[in-house]
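Exam revision sheet. Question 4 asks you to relate a sequence to its structure. Input first:
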Amino acid sequence: MEDLISKREVLERYGISYGALYRWKRLGLIPEEWFIKKSTVTGQETFFNREQICQRVELILERKENISLEELAEVLAGKRKEQQSRRRLILETRFDRREYSVEELKNAVLTDGERKISILDYLREVSL
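Answer key, structure tokens:
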């Protein structure tokens, strides 16, 4: 079972405002998909994966004194891009070996006679 923390607990724990949290979301510092909406007895509340959000909030609070939030968002986006570009398709034959970044691929097709099966979508899915 996933260890969740409520939005209210995050705000109280780190002494940040609701406005700051949503600004960080708008800037891409906290991804939209991290905001988990759940029904509770008092209505709908927002929760986060505890480890994920705590690490990110601590990083933001630690770094915001030395770098603008916009620059930090770019750094975090670059890290994600860098991680994705490490995913490679390696094709080896008895003659040679070639490597391709999954993001560089335009098309990848497996043929079986007349039938053609695109494997590019699959490669992109597993590279997320």
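Marking note for examiners. The chain is about 45% helix and 25% strand.
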